[in-house]
Specification:
Keywords: Acyltransferase, Copper, Copper transport, Ion transport, Membrane, Transferase, Transmembrane, Transmembrane helix, Transport. This protein is 31% helix and 17% strand. The radius of gyration is 27 Å and the shape is elongated. The chain has 433 residues and is of the alpha/beta class.
Length: 433
Protein backbone atom coordinates (compact mmCIF):
# COMPACT_ATOMS: atom_id res chain seq x y z
CA UNK A 1 0.00 0.00 0.00
CA UNK A 2 1.03 3.58 -0.49
CA UNK A 3 3.09 5.48 2.05
CA UNK A 4 4.87 8.81 1.89
CA UNK A 5 7.88 9.68 4.01
CA UNK A 6 8.61 13.29 4.89
CA UNK A 7 12.05 14.21 3.50
CA UNK A 8 13.11 16.77 6.06
CA UNK A 9 11.58 17.56 9.44
CA UNK A 10 10.26 21.09 9.38
CA UNK A 11 10.13 21.22 5.57
CA UNK A 12 7.64 18.42 5.20
CA UNK A 13 4.18 19.21 3.86
CA UNK A 14 1.00 18.22 5.65
CA UNK A 15 0.46 14.71 4.29
CA UNK A 16 -3.08 13.69 3.52
CA UNK A 17 -3.65 10.03 4.30
CA UNK A 18 -7.18 8.75 4.05
CA UNK A 19 -9.16 11.72 5.29
CA UNK A 20 -6.76 12.98 7.93
CA UNK A 21 -3.28 14.45 8.04
CA UNK A 22 -0.13 14.47 10.14
CA UNK A 23 2.46 17.22 10.40
CA UNK A 24 5.95 16.35 11.69
CA UNK A 25 7.55 19.37 13.37
CA UNK A 26 11.26 20.10 13.59
CA UNK A 27 12.94 19.25 16.90
CA UNK A 28 13.39 22.85 17.91
CA UNK A 29 9.89 23.92 16.94
CA UNK A 30 8.33 20.84 18.54
CA UNK A 31 9.95 21.55 21.91
CA UNK A 32 9.12 25.25 21.67
CA UNK A 33 5.49 24.57 20.81
CA UNK A 34 5.10 21.97 23.55
CA UNK A 35 6.57 24.35 26.12
CA UNK A 36 4.13 27.07 25.09
CA UNK A 37 1.03 24.90 24.95
CA UNK A 38 0.23 25.41 28.62
CA UNK A 39 -0.81 28.99 27.82
CA UNK A 40 -4.51 28.33 27.39
CA UNK A 41 -5.24 31.91 26.43
CA UNK A 42 -3.00 31.77 23.36
CA UNK A 43 -4.63 31.26 20.02
CA UNK A 44 -4.37 27.79 18.57
CA UNK A 45 -2.89 27.85 15.05
CA UNK A 46 -4.43 24.45 14.32
CA UNK A 47 -7.96 25.46 15.29
CA UNK A 48 -10.65 25.51 12.67
CA UNK A 49 -14.31 26.35 12.77
CA UNK A 50 -14.91 23.41 10.48
CA UNK A 51 -13.55 21.00 13.07
CA UNK A 52 -16.79 19.05 13.25
CA UNK A 53 -16.07 17.72 9.80
CA UNK A 54 -13.86 14.75 10.51
CA UNK A 55 -12.07 15.03 7.18
CA UNK A 56 -10.56 18.34 8.31
CA UNK A 57 -8.95 16.96 11.45
CA UNK A 58 -5.17 16.78 11.64
CA UNK A 59 -2.60 15.10 13.82
CA UNK A 60 0.34 17.21 14.98
CA UNK A 61 3.46 15.07 15.22
CA UNK A 62 6.06 16.30 17.73
CA UNK A 63 8.95 14.21 16.46
CA UNK A 64 11.67 14.18 19.13
CA UNK A 65 12.90 10.62 18.62
CA UNK A 66 16.55 11.73 18.77
CA UNK A 67 15.99 13.51 22.08
CA UNK A 68 16.35 12.11 25.58
CA UNK A 69 13.50 13.94 27.27
CA UNK A 70 13.03 13.82 31.06
CA UNK A 71 9.87 11.88 31.87
CA UNK A 72 8.49 14.64 34.08
CA UNK A 73 8.75 17.16 31.24
CA UNK A 74 7.00 14.89 28.72
CA UNK A 75 4.34 14.10 31.30
CA UNK A 76 3.75 17.83 31.82
CA UNK A 77 3.47 18.34 28.05
CA UNK A 78 0.79 15.68 27.81
CA UNK A 79 -1.29 17.08 30.64
CA UNK A 80 -1.05 20.58 29.16
CA UNK A 81 -2.20 19.34 25.75
CA UNK A 82 -5.11 17.44 27.30
CA UNK A 83 -6.14 20.51 29.29
CA UNK A 84 -5.94 22.63 26.17
CA UNK A 85 -7.99 20.14 24.17
CA UNK A 86 -10.75 20.31 26.76
CA UNK A 87 -10.70 24.10 26.54
CA UNK A 88 -10.88 23.97 22.74
CA UNK A 89 -13.76 21.50 22.89
CA UNK A 90 -15.67 23.91 25.11
CA UNK A 91 -14.98 26.67 22.56
CA UNK A 92 -16.06 24.34 19.74
CA UNK A 93 -12.59 24.69 18.19
CA UNK A 94 -11.01 21.26 18.61
CA UNK A 95 -9.61 20.32 15.19
CA UNK A 96 -6.54 18.14 15.76
CA UNK A 97 -4.99 15.24 17.62
CA UNK A 98 -1.36 15.07 18.75
CA UNK A 99 1.43 12.50 18.73
CA UNK A 100 4.64 12.93 20.75
CA UNK A 101 7.59 10.68 19.83
CA UNK A 102 10.71 10.60 22.02
CA UNK A 103 13.11 8.67 24.24
CA UNK A 104 13.42 9.06 27.99
CA UNK A 105 16.30 9.24 30.40
CA UNK A 106 16.34 6.05 32.55
CA UNK A 107 13.29 6.12 34.80
CA UNK A 108 10.72 3.83 36.40
CA UNK A 109 7.03 4.71 36.15
CA UNK A 110 4.16 3.20 38.10
CA UNK A 111 0.50 3.11 37.12
CA UNK A 112 -2.70 3.26 39.11
CA UNK A 113 -2.59 -0.48 39.77
CA UNK A 114 1.08 -0.50 40.78
CA UNK A 115 2.27 -2.13 43.97
CA UNK A 116 5.69 -1.80 45.58
CA UNK A 117 5.84 -5.59 45.83
CA UNK A 118 6.89 -5.52 42.17
CA UNK A 119 9.98 -3.44 43.00
CA UNK A 120 13.04 -5.61 43.68
CA UNK A 121 14.74 -2.83 45.63
CA UNK A 122 14.13 -0.44 48.46
CA UNK A 123 12.34 2.60 47.07
CA UNK A 124 14.62 4.88 49.07
CA UNK A 125 17.63 3.39 47.25
CA UNK A 126 16.12 3.16 43.78
CA UNK A 127 18.66 2.95 40.92
CA UNK A 128 16.60 5.49 38.96
CA UNK A 129 13.88 8.03 39.64
CA UNK A 130 10.39 6.63 40.19
CA UNK A 131 7.19 8.40 39.15
CA UNK A 132 3.69 7.48 40.28
CA UNK A 133 1.41 8.29 37.33
CA UNK A 134 -2.29 8.21 36.54
CA UNK A 135 -1.94 5.75 33.64
CA UNK A 136 -3.24 2.24 33.86
CA UNK A 137 -1.00 -0.73 34.49
CA UNK A 138 1.92 -1.68 36.71
CA UNK A 139 5.56 -0.62 36.96
CA UNK A 140 7.75 -0.38 33.85
CA UNK A 141 11.08 1.07 32.75
CA UNK A 142 11.83 3.78 30.17
CA UNK A 143 15.30 4.47 28.84
CA UNK A 144 17.52 5.18 25.82
CA UNK A 145 16.87 2.98 22.80
CA UNK A 146 13.16 2.77 23.56
CA UNK A 147 10.70 4.39 21.16
CA UNK A 148 8.04 6.06 23.30
CA UNK A 149 4.89 7.33 21.63
CA UNK A 150 2.18 9.38 23.31
CA UNK A 151 -0.98 9.66 21.16
CA UNK A 152 -3.31 12.38 22.47
CA UNK A 153 -6.50 11.58 20.63
CA UNK A 154 -10.14 12.60 20.87
CA UNK A 155 -11.86 9.23 20.75
CA UNK A 156 -15.17 10.91 19.95
CA UNK A 157 -13.93 11.08 16.37
CA UNK A 158 -12.95 7.40 16.29
CA UNK A 159 -14.51 4.87 18.63
CA UNK A 160 -15.56 5.57 22.20
CA UNK A 161 -14.39 2.18 23.44
CA UNK A 162 -11.24 1.84 25.55
CA UNK A 163 -10.84 -1.87 24.85
CA UNK A 164 -10.97 -1.13 21.13
CA UNK A 165 -8.32 1.57 21.56
CA UNK A 166 -5.95 -0.76 23.45
CA UNK A 167 -6.37 -3.47 20.82
CA UNK A 168 -5.77 -0.87 18.09
CA UNK A 169 -2.46 0.14 19.68
CA UNK A 170 -1.43 -3.51 19.92
CA UNK A 171 -2.36 -4.10 16.30
CA UNK A 172 -0.29 -1.13 15.18
CA UNK A 173 2.82 -2.50 16.88
CA UNK A 174 2.19 -6.01 15.52
CA UNK A 175 1.93 -4.78 11.94
CA UNK A 176 4.84 -2.36 12.22
CA UNK A 177 7.11 -5.06 13.67
CA UNK A 178 6.32 -7.33 10.76
CA UNK A 179 6.48 -4.73 7.97
CA UNK A 180 9.61 -2.99 9.25
CA UNK A 181 11.61 -5.81 10.89
CA UNK A 182 9.97 -9.04 9.62
CA UNK A 183 9.21 -9.89 13.25
CA UNK A 184 5.90 -11.63 13.91
CA UNK A 185 4.34 -10.16 17.03
CA UNK A 186 1.16 -11.29 18.74
CA UNK A 187 -1.24 -10.66 21.59
CA UNK A 188 -1.59 -12.71 24.75
CA UNK A 189 -5.12 -13.24 25.97
CA UNK A 190 -5.78 -11.42 29.23
CA UNK A 191 -2.62 -9.29 28.96
CA UNK A 192 -2.01 -5.88 27.39
CA UNK A 193 0.95 -5.27 25.09
CA UNK A 194 2.69 -6.81 22.10
CA UNK A 195 4.61 -10.06 22.44
CA UNK A 196 7.01 -12.23 20.49
CA UNK A 197 6.85 -15.66 22.01
CA UNK A 198 7.38 -15.27 25.74
CA UNK A 199 8.97 -11.82 25.42
CA UNK A 200 7.16 -8.52 25.70
CA UNK A 201 8.44 -5.96 23.18
CA UNK A 202 5.91 -3.17 23.63
CA UNK A 203 4.25 -2.03 26.85
CA UNK A 204 1.00 -0.06 26.72
CA UNK A 205 -0.48 2.10 29.44
CA UNK A 206 -3.06 4.81 28.85
CA UNK A 207 -5.19 7.36 30.62
CA UNK A 208 -8.43 8.79 29.22
CA UNK A 209 -9.86 12.10 30.37
CA UNK A 210 -13.32 12.79 28.97
CA UNK A 211 -12.46 10.69 25.91
CA UNK A 212 -9.09 12.41 25.37
CA UNK A 213 -6.28 9.82 25.55
CA UNK A 214 -2.76 10.34 26.80
CA UNK A 215 0.23 8.26 27.89
CA UNK A 216 0.65 5.49 25.32
CA UNK A 217 3.15 2.83 24.30
CA UNK A 218 6.87 2.07 24.58
CA UNK A 219 8.63 -0.21 22.07
CA UNK A 220 12.02 -1.66 23.03
CA UNK A 221 14.27 -1.23 19.99
CA UNK A 222 17.83 -1.29 21.36
CA UNK A 223 16.93 -0.79 25.00
CA UNK A 224 19.31 -2.07 27.68
CA UNK A 225 17.17 -4.71 29.40
CA UNK A 226 19.21 -4.82 32.63
CA UNK A 227 17.01 -2.27 34.50
CA UNK A 228 14.00 -4.55 33.94
CA UNK A 229 15.69 -7.11 36.21
CA UNK A 230 15.16 -4.80 39.19
CA UNK A 231 11.37 -4.86 38.79
CA UNK A 232 8.55 -7.21 37.84
CA UNK A 233 7.63 -5.55 34.53
CA UNK A 234 3.90 -4.87 34.34
CA UNK A 235 3.45 -7.18 37.33
CA UNK A 236 3.98 -10.31 35.20
CA UNK A 237 6.43 -12.73 36.81
CA UNK A 238 6.36 -15.64 34.37
CA UNK A 239 7.27 -13.73 31.20
CA UNK A 240 10.31 -11.84 29.97
CA UNK A 241 11.05 -8.50 28.30
CA UNK A 242 12.79 -8.36 24.91
CA UNK A 243 13.94 -5.85 22.33
CA UNK A 244 14.01 -5.66 18.54
CA UNK A 245 17.82 -5.74 18.36
CA UNK A 246 18.14 -9.12 20.07
CA UNK A 247 15.32 -10.67 18.08
CA UNK A 248 16.73 -9.52 14.76
CA UNK A 249 20.18 -10.84 15.65
CA UNK A 250 18.68 -14.23 16.40
CA UNK A 251 16.54 -14.25 13.26
CA UNK A 252 19.51 -13.41 11.04
CA UNK A 253 21.91 -15.68 12.96
CA UNK A 254 24.25 -12.68 13.22
CA UNK A 255 24.99 -12.94 9.48
CA UNK A 256 24.84 -9.95 7.11
CA UNK A 257 22.93 -7.99 9.72
CA UNK A 258 24.28 -4.93 11.45
CA UNK A 259 23.19 -1.85 13.28
CA UNK A 260 24.74 1.32 12.01
CA UNK A 261 24.99 4.92 13.06
CA UNK A 262 26.02 5.97 9.59
CA UNK A 263 22.44 5.51 8.40
CA UNK A 264 20.29 7.22 11.03
CA UNK A 265 17.59 7.67 8.41
CA UNK A 266 16.62 4.04 9.03
CA UNK A 267 14.67 5.31 12.03
CA UNK A 268 12.33 7.06 9.62
CA UNK A 269 11.14 3.70 8.32
CA UNK A 270 9.90 2.78 11.76
CA UNK A 271 8.61 6.23 12.68
CA UNK A 272 6.70 6.85 9.46
CA UNK A 273 5.31 3.34 9.53
CA UNK A 274 3.84 4.21 12.91
CA UNK A 275 2.69 7.66 11.83
CA UNK A 276 0.98 6.37 8.71
CA UNK A 277 -0.73 3.56 10.56
CA UNK A 278 -3.93 3.55 12.55
CA UNK A 279 -2.00 4.66 15.64
CA UNK A 280 -3.83 7.92 15.08
CA UNK A 281 -5.46 7.49 11.66
CA UNK A 282 -7.38 4.28 12.39
CA UNK A 283 -8.05 3.73 8.69
CA UNK A 284 -5.73 0.82 8.03
CA UNK A 285 -2.02 0.28 8.45
CA UNK A 286 0.13 1.17 5.44
CA UNK A 287 2.58 -1.63 4.69
CA UNK A 288 6.30 -0.97 4.30
CA UNK A 289 8.98 -3.27 2.97
CA UNK A 290 11.27 -4.91 5.59
CA UNK A 291 14.56 -3.13 6.23
CA UNK A 292 17.88 -4.80 7.03
CA UNK A 293 19.37 -2.16 9.30
CA UNK A 294 18.36 -0.16 12.33
CA UNK A 295 20.66 2.28 14.11
CA UNK A 296 21.69 1.86 17.70
CA UNK A 297 20.00 4.80 19.28
CA UNK A 298 21.38 7.67 21.29
CA UNK A 299 22.59 6.57 24.68
CA UNK A 300 23.38 2.97 23.82
CA UNK A 301 26.64 1.48 25.05
CA UNK A 302 29.74 2.05 22.90
CA UNK A 303 27.82 4.44 20.69
CA UNK A 304 29.94 6.55 18.35
CA UNK A 305 29.04 10.16 17.76
CA UNK A 306 25.95 10.40 15.59
CA UNK A 307 25.98 13.31 13.20
CA UNK A 308 22.90 15.37 12.60
CA UNK A 309 21.14 13.83 9.62
CA UNK A 310 18.63 16.57 8.90
CA UNK A 311 20.70 17.74 5.92
CA UNK A 312 21.21 14.21 4.62
CA UNK A 313 17.78 14.04 3.03
CA UNK A 314 17.94 15.20 -0.55
CA UNK A 315 14.52 16.30 -1.76
CA UNK A 316 15.67 16.12 -5.38
CA UNK A 317 17.08 12.60 -5.40
CA UNK A 318 15.04 11.28 -2.50
CA UNK A 319 18.16 9.64 -1.05
CA UNK A 320 17.00 7.77 2.08
CA UNK A 321 13.96 10.04 2.16
CA UNK A 322 11.06 8.84 0.04
CA UNK A 323 9.16 5.57 0.01
CA UNK A 324 6.21 5.71 -2.37
CA UNK A 325 5.15 2.10 -2.10
CA UNK A 326 6.27 -1.24 -0.70
CA UNK A 327 9.63 -2.17 -2.19
CA UNK A 328 10.48 1.33 -3.39
CA UNK A 329 14.32 1.60 -3.32
CA UNK A 330 14.41 4.99 -1.66
CA UNK A 331 16.98 4.18 1.01
CA UNK A 332 19.87 3.34 -1.32
CA UNK A 333 21.33 5.94 -3.67
CA UNK A 334 22.31 3.51 -6.43
CA UNK A 335 18.99 1.68 -6.45
CA UNK A 336 17.12 4.95 -6.33
CA UNK A 337 18.99 6.27 -9.39
CA UNK A 338 18.21 3.02 -11.23
CA UNK A 339 14.55 3.52 -10.36
CA UNK A 340 14.68 7.06 -11.77
CA UNK A 341 16.29 5.75 -14.97
CA UNK A 342 13.50 3.18 -15.24
CA UNK A 343 10.83 5.90 -14.87
CA UNK A 344 12.63 8.00 -17.52
CA UNK A 345 12.87 5.13 -20.03
CA UNK A 346 9.26 4.13 -19.39
CA UNK A 347 8.14 7.68 -20.15
CA UNK A 348 10.15 7.69 -23.40
CA UNK A 349 8.67 4.29 -24.32
CA UNK A 350 5.13 5.60 -23.84
CA UNK A 351 5.81 8.53 -26.17
CA UNK A 352 7.21 6.15 -28.81
CA UNK A 353 4.33 3.68 -28.55
CA UNK A 354 1.79 6.50 -28.69
CA UNK A 355 3.16 7.51 -32.08
CA UNK A 356 3.92 4.03 -33.37
CA UNK A 357 2.35 3.09 -36.72
CA UNK A 358 1.07 -0.07 -35.05
CA UNK A 359 -1.24 1.93 -32.81
CA UNK A 360 -3.83 3.75 -34.87
CA UNK A 361 -7.51 3.77 -33.96
CA UNK A 362 -9.52 2.11 -36.70
CA UNK A 363 -6.46 0.52 -38.28
CA UNK A 364 -7.10 -2.49 -40.50
CA UNK A 365 -3.67 -3.88 -39.76
CA UNK A 366 -3.50 -7.68 -39.98
CA UNK A 367 -2.65 -7.74 -36.26
CA UNK A 368 -5.69 -5.74 -35.18
CA UNK A 369 -5.93 -7.72 -31.95
CA UNK A 370 -2.31 -6.95 -31.13
CA UNK A 371 -2.98 -3.29 -31.93
CA UNK A 372 -5.81 -3.13 -29.41
CA UNK A 373 -3.64 -4.85 -26.81
CA UNK A 374 -0.85 -2.33 -27.38
CA UNK A 375 -3.34 0.53 -27.08
CA UNK A 376 -4.60 -0.79 -23.76
CA UNK A 377 -1.03 -1.33 -22.58
CA UNK A 378 -0.06 2.24 -23.42
CA UNK A 379 -3.12 3.59 -21.62
CA UNK A 380 -2.30 1.46 -18.55
CA UNK A 381 1.32 2.65 -18.52
CA UNK A 382 0.21 6.27 -18.92
CA UNK A 383 -2.20 5.91 -16.03
CA UNK A 384 0.48 4.29 -13.86
CA UNK A 385 2.99 7.03 -14.63
CA UNK A 386 0.43 9.74 -13.93
CA UNK A 387 -0.38 8.12 -10.59
CA UNK A 388 3.33 7.85 -9.73
CA UNK A 389 3.91 11.51 -10.61
CA UNK A 390 0.93 12.49 -8.45
CA UNK A 391 2.44 10.60 -5.51
CA UNK A 392 5.82 12.19 -6.16
CA UNK A 393 4.30 15.68 -6.09
CA UNK A 394 2.38 14.92 -2.88
CA UNK A 395 5.51 13.63 -1.16
CA UNK A 396 7.90 16.24 -2.58
CA UNK A 397 9.85 13.53 -4.40
CA UNK A 398 11.50 15.74 -7.02
CA UNK A 399 13.54 12.91 -8.53
CA UNK A 400 10.56 10.86 -9.71
CA UNK A 401 8.71 13.95 -10.92
CA UNK A 402 11.65 15.21 -12.99
CA UNK A 403 12.41 11.74 -14.40
CA UNK A 404 8.85 11.41 -15.70
CA UNK A 405 8.65 14.96 -17.08
CA UNK A 406 12.07 14.79 -18.78
CA UNK A 407 11.27 11.34 -20.18
CA UNK A 408 8.01 12.50 -21.76
CA UNK A 409 9.69 15.64 -23.11
CA UNK A 410 12.58 13.72 -24.68
CA UNK A 411 10.19 11.15 -26.13
CA UNK A 412 8.02 13.85 -27.64
CA UNK A 413 11.01 15.67 -29.16
CA UNK A 414 12.39 12.47 -30.69
CA UNK A 415 9.22 10.79 -31.90
CA UNK A 416 6.56 13.47 -32.12
CA UNK A 417 8.04 16.90 -32.66
CA UNK A 418 8.38 18.26 -36.18
CA UNK A 419 11.67 19.78 -35.03
CA UNK A 420 13.25 16.36 -34.96
CA UNK A 421 11.07 14.05 -37.03
CA UNK A 422 11.98 14.28 -40.70
CA UNK A 423 9.22 13.78 -43.21
CA UNK A 424 10.00 12.41 -46.61
CA UNK A 425 8.91 14.45 -49.64
CA UNK A 426 7.08 12.26 -52.08
CA UNK A 427 6.36 13.15 -55.67
CA UNK A 428 2.72 13.81 -56.38
CA UNK A 429 1.04 11.36 -58.72
CA UNK A 430 0.30 12.46 -62.25
CA UNK A 431 -2.85 14.55 -62.02
CA UNK A 432 -3.32 14.78 -65.78
CA UNK A 433 -6.77 14.45 -67.18
Amino acid sequence: MIISIAPVFGLAPVHQNGNRAYRPYSHYYAVSKLDQISDLNASDPTSSRTHHQQQNRRCECFDLYKELVPFEKAWSWQKSIVKRRHTLIERDEDSSDSLIILQHHPVYTMGTASSEEYLNFNRDNAPYDIYQTERGGEVTFHGPGQLVMYPIINLRYHNMDLHWYLRALEEVVIRVLFSTFSIKGSRVEGLTGTWVGNQKLAAIGIRVSRWITYHGLALNVTTDLTPFQHIVPCGIRDRQVGNVKSLRERLDCLQSYKYTYQEPHRCYTLLRSFQSSDLFLFYGVKRMSPRKTMPLWHGHANAPHEEDDDDAHDILLGDHAEILFSGWPGTNTGMYILALVFVFLLSVLVEWLSRSPFIKPGSKHVAAGLTRTLMHTVHAIRFGLAYLVMLAVMSFNGGVFLAAVVGHSVGFLIFGSQLVVRTETRALPDMGC
